[in-house]
Task: structure prediction
Amino acid sequence: MHNKVNKERRVIAGMFNNIASSYDFINHTLSFGIDKIWRYRLVKKIAINNPQKALDIACGTGDVSIALMKKGIDVTGLDIAQEMLEIAKRKTEKKYNKYLKKTSKGLKIEPTKYILASADSIPFPSNSFDLVTIGFGIRNFENREKALLEIRRVLKQKGELAILEFATPRNKVWKSLYNFYFLTILPFIGKVISKDKDAYNYLPTSVNTFPQYSEFKKELEKSGFSDVKFYSLTGGVAVLYIAKNSIKME
Result:
């Protein structure tokens, strides 16, 4: 039986505000840097369709937003945790200034914009974006059904949704090793570094209670998305879901 997870917006925002300063260091360390490869896979997969405008929901400290920005995409990052957004803004400014020094004449990109908002109430008109991305955030949504409808609303017809999320490996040996690390070692190290006793206990619980693989594919289809595909990453530790908004939302 799954443990209940409190996903009230104020609770989730408070938790991520508390760990914001150590978030990047812990993520990159505990994933052995593999999280960077997962984000690279996402950006590579969607870049072939040449999206012009993107909304990065649950953008956190801005890693996906910045990666999309580097591709010349006009990006808006959205999150409910103000402290995470402050770090994202600083990282973006640093990366953007570095880019400007290296860029060739005439080649320009716009710096990512960041807003404090929730996925179930997106402050943009319908049909605003070619692409919506969510990197390891959808399992934290307070109202996932409403959020998916909002995402479809702001996506243009034939616009794309790309979601990275954690999962549980299917291979029995890999699953047992993963569970030992994910349920025992990771929460302990995360707690020691972040000084937050709840955040890294919440992580494995939130993953275990989130629909995975074909189960989440069906949820996306039920919400009106089509051509839903998913790709297992690192033996199923993470999954990349890609879906299209086939019907124009008014």
